[in-house]
Design goal:
- It contains 14 helices and seven strands.
- With 295 residues, it is an alpha+beta fold.
- Among the domains are: 1-103, Serine Threonine Protein Phosphatase 5, Tetratricopeptide repeat; 217-294, no CATH class.
- The strands form two sheets. Strands 4-3-2-1-7 form a five-stranded antiparallel β-sheet. Strands 5-6 form a two-stranded antiparallel ribbon.
- It has helices at residues 3-7, 18-34, 39-50, 54-66, 70-82, 90-102, 106-118, 126-140, 150-163, 167-187, 191-207, 220-223, 262-268, 291-294; strands at residues 228-234, 237-246, 249-254, 257-259, 270-271, 274-275, 283-288.
- It is globular and about 60 Å long.
Length: 295
């Protein structure tokens, strides 16, 4: 590939051959030397973060943060908050989140809210947490940009409404967050998105009964945690997914492959070269197979 062709992959580095991937890294490193915005350094950091090479990711984020890139500053906050490089440092996390928040980062704002809720850096203050999340919800409730953190903020807001006893609102907001995130994952298969989706689905089915007659792809986060068989159609072809116990955990079998967890399944399962998450809205007629159905 020519440099010009490869550059466009810096922000969307999926579906590359091994050789293209090596060239991507080489070109991206070359670009970052002259990058005045920090955006390419962030993209290369994101590449290593996605591959869980967090030390390398931090190096690139720090280069971009030094020239004032907000995304890099925010991402460094996450690295220290979760201890991605082996050390949790809440004081550093707050420093970076606060700087990013002052630059307009909504993600940094809800992480600071979490710190009030959990008693990290601050004394525990649930009322302050609620105040921040409700203000963020007002800001983002009509958002249509799939790369805004609506699912994260909506799911927190829904949990607050549940705690307040407004179950109908909680359910409605959870479903909006789920639908929005499903659309986002088509374009962004970052592993953190699956963690958020799994939590949203879990919380939905703590509030309502599972409907065996009407469910979708992401409801498999609920079904595949225990042994089950599900079939569905894609372009008139029937497919089956099975979760079975192996020791003390459920593994998932689909399309000739085995996956060690629901996150692994959603991240990697594919049909005809397309990730199932990319074609989720083309998958139809999900059906939970009962033992009687197999007789």
């Amino acid at each position: 590939m020519e440099y010009e062709e490869l550059i466009k992959y810096v922000d969307g580095y999926e579906n590359l051959t091994d050789e293209e991937e090596k060239e991507l890294i080489r070109v991206a490193k070359y670009i970052t030397k002259e990058d005045k915005s920090g955006n390419y350094s962030v993209s290369l950091g994101n590449y290593h973060y996605e591959n869980k090479e967090f030390d390398k990711a931090l190096d690139y984020y720090e280069k971009a943060a030094d020239i004032g890139n907000r995304d890099a500053i925010e991402n460094i906050g996450y690295i220290w908050y979760y201890g991605r490089t082996g050390e949790v440092n809440i004081e550093k996390a707050y420093k970076y989140f606060k700087k990013a928040e002052d630059m307009g980062s909504l993600r940094a704002s809800y992480k600071i809210a979490d710190m009030y809720k959990n008693g990290y850096y601050f004394e525990k203050d649930y009322d302050k947490y609620v105040e921040i999340i409700k203000e963020l919800y007002k800001k983002i409730r009509n958002e249509t940009d799939l790369f805004k953190p609506l699912p994260e903020i909506f799911s927190r807001y829904a949990a607050i409404k549940k705690d307040e006893g407004d179950i109908d609102t909680a359910i409605r907001v959870y479903f909006i967050a789920k639908d929005y995130l499903a659309q986002k994952i088509v374009y962004d298969s970052f592993f953190g998105n699956y963690t958020v989706m799994k939590q949203i689905v879990k919380e939905i089915y703590e509030l309502i009964d599972f409907d065996e007659e009407m469910f979708d792809l992401y409801d498999l986060f609920y079904l595949l945690e225990t042994p089950n068989k599900v079939d569905f159609f894609y372009h008139s072809n029937l497919y089956m997914i099975e979760s079975v116990m192996e020791g003390d955990k459920c593994i998932i079998k689909f399309n000739g492959e085995t996956y060690n967890s629901t996150n692994d399944f959603f991240k990697n399962a594919s049909i005809d070269g397309f990730k199932i998450t990319e074609i989720y809205d083309e998958l139809t007629d999900f059906d939970l197979i009962k033992e009687d159905d197999e007789d």
